[in-house]
Design goal:
Layout: H1 2-25, H2 40-61, H3 78-94, H4 106-109, H5 116-135, H6 139-142, H7 155-179, H8 185-197, H9 203-208, E1 213-214, E2 217-218
Antiparallel strand pairs: 1-2
Length: 257
């Protein structure tokens, strides 16, 4: 009886050893060599361009006196957030060697003006700087290591930080605007498009969501009567007002900002 048992044990050990050896000799297929389907350079430029346009459009829609408005004493004003967005393009890209314009001082830039025209000019100039800097990068540049940011960090991570930061502050500006009863211009246009596409019998519901233009900006209907901006959309059968920051995706149908 002992012989078959010993034979079985020895056979099992031999087979197990062969399995271990075959695993040890197998090639390492853990590194995926598939070509990337996501072009970070092109997508980052699209995102940053879209964010800049929205910032410029929103700056143009604000009443002049609102540029100094801030939700609390220890927060940035509208003007300071706009300029912070512009200044971060210089500061973040300088992490990988890009040279900001002469005279740029990061610590002072966001308090440098409250004038609408200068704010818009600064936004556009800093976008041009970012556009040229990123367009000048090769794929090899995106993979270039930056040990000062971390053992595996690279220049592509810097671009990712810039895009994420831009979307974060766009969301902040949207919240500021909504708190003041101001509808972002791109949402106004979306509402108009929806209203125009509605059948005649449903047109009134769509029109209710479209804000009227005032001389100094775009205001949510009913806001002047003390109603919360979000309450003005309860009559419209669309998703509640919210901001959408998924990079590159844009707001899905029915999502307003």
């Amino acid at each position: 009886m002992k012989t078959p048992i010993l034979f079985s044990i020895c056979l099992a050990l031999i087979l197990n050893g062969n399995v271990v050896e075959s695993h040890a000799q197998a090639p390492d297929n853990s590194k995926d060599s598939t070509a990337p389907s996501y072009d970070m350079k092109a997508q980052a430029l699209l995102d940053l361009q879209a964010v800049n346009k929205k910032c410029v459009d929103l700056a143009g829609a604000l009443p002049s006196e609102k540029l100094t408005w801030r939700p609390a004493a220890d927060t940035r004003s509208f003007a300071e957030v706009f300029l912070h967005v512009a200044g971060e393009r210089y500061s973040i890209l300088s992490m990988m060697g890009a040279t900001p314009p002469a005279g740029f001082k990061a610590g002072e830039f966001e308090k440098s003006t409250t004038e609408r025209d200068r704010i818009v000019e600064d936004l556009n100039q800093s976008w041009d700087f970012a556009n040229k800097t990123i367009n000048g990068m090769s794929n090899a540049d995106f993979a270039k290591l930056m040990p000062k940011l971390g053992p595996q960090a690279n220049e592509g991570d810097v671009i990712y930080i810039l895009v994420a930061d831009a979307h974060e502050h766009l969301g902040q500006l949207i919240a500021y605007a909504r708190q003041n009863g101001i509808v972002p211009p791109w949402t106004v246009q979306m509402q108009k498009n929806k209203a125009a596409a509605l059948p005649a019998s449903s047109a009134d519901a769509g029109v209710q969501a479209v804000t009227s233009y005032s001389q100094d900006g775009l205001r949510t209907p009913g806001a002047a009567k003390g109603r919360h901006p979000y309450e003005c959309y309860k009559r419209v059968k669309i998703n509640p007002v919210r901001s959408w920051h998924e990079p590159g995706s844009g707001p899905p149908a029915g999502i307003l900002t």
